[in-house]
Design brief:
Number of strands: 0
Number of helices: 6
Radius of gyration: 27 Å
Shape: elongated
Strand content: under 5%
Structural class: mainly alpha
Oligomer: single chain
Length: 136
């Protein structure tokens, strides 16, 4: 979130919560805390806070953002990428996947395994249901 978006967020929160007081430095302080979050997530967090309480502080928005990210990352599974035997590649790919999932993007589904060749089902099941010869 850039500083212009932070100003928009402060105005949005003030509109959602009329009791919130702002001054010319409010956006600067909020930007110092919220700069790493996307504006869309911060607005959504403010809306979720407004659904359950009548006053909102910066700490309430941050707590909601953290809660939402924790829910998104619950059950995160790393999807291997080519070359991730190298620790640098692995760490970069893992960080990228974590950031994407935390931002609300769904993790890529791993590719399904495919059979090497078709199996001869008719041959494999030809003897099914026949009696076993006594000489065996």
């Amino acid at each position: 979130m850039n500083s212009t978006e932070t100003i928009q967020l402060v105005r949005y929160v003030a509109a959602l919560f009329p009791a919130v007081r702002t001054d010319p430095h409010t956006a600067d302080a909020w930007h110092d805390v919220l700069h790493r979050y996307p504006i869309e997530q911060a607005r959504a967090a403010a809306v979720r806070v407004s659904e359950r309480q009548t006053f909102c502080s910066l700490a309430d928005i941050v707590a909601e953002l953290k809660r939402t990210r924790a829910v998104a990352l619950d059950g995160f599974r790393y999807v291997p990428v080519p070359g991730d035997d190298d620790p640098t590649v692995y760490l970069a790919a893992r960080r990228e996947q974590l950031a994407a999932v935390a931002a609300g993007h769904r993790a890529a589904d791993p590719e399904a395994l495919t059979a090497a060749r078709p199996r001869p089902v008719a041959e494999l099941t030809a003897a099914t249901g026949r009696d076993i010869p006594e000489e065996l």
